[in-house]
Amino acid sequence: MVVVKNPALKGYAVEAPAKARAKSKVSIKSRVVILAGIAALVLLIFLIQTTQIYLTKNHIFQLERQLNTVQESYNSINLEVSQLKRPDRIIPIAKQKCGLIVPEEDQFVAVYYN
């Protein structure tokens, strides 16, 4: 601010310099640019987070599909194992390949220990 002596007014008049008014316009422009930059930064962070959420959901979906496939394989293998260990399947194979002799119902084996 500048104080100027004005002889016509017989006193002092106060006048704001032109540079000060221009400076306030620049600071308003700077504020607008800063606010726009902050808004752009917030928007960028929001977009990054949204993308991360989408990618995480997609990964979870793929893992769920993989889990379903593995569970189906496990159930299939478990069924095959239960079919393979049935005694009515094992006894004929044991008779043919290993010479298994199935005892009669009235036969028993006595074992003596000393």
List the helices and strands and how they pair.
Elements: E1 2-6, E2 11-15, H1 18-84, H2 87-98
Antiparallel strand pairs: 1-2
Describe the structure.
- The protein is mainly α and 114 residues long.
- It has one domain.
- 69% of the residues lie in helices and 9% in strands.
- It has a two-stranded antiparallel ribbon.
- Strand 1 and strand 2 form a beta hairpin.
- The longest helix has 67 residues.
Number of strands: 2
Give the strand order, joined by hyphens, for the main sheet.
1-2
Number of domains: 1
C-alpha termini separation: 123 Å
Q: What's the pLDDT, averaged over the residues?
A: 85
The level of helicity is 55-70%
Main sheet specs:
2 strands, antiparallel
- What oligomeric state do these chains adopt? single chain
Number of helices, where a helix is a run of at least 4 consecutive DSSP H or I residues: 2
* Helix/strand/pairing category: mainly alpha
H/E series, N to C? EEHH
The best one-word shape is rod-shaped
Q: What percentage of the residues does DSSP assign to strands (E)?
A: 5-15%
Which residues form runs of ≥5 with pLDDT under 50? none
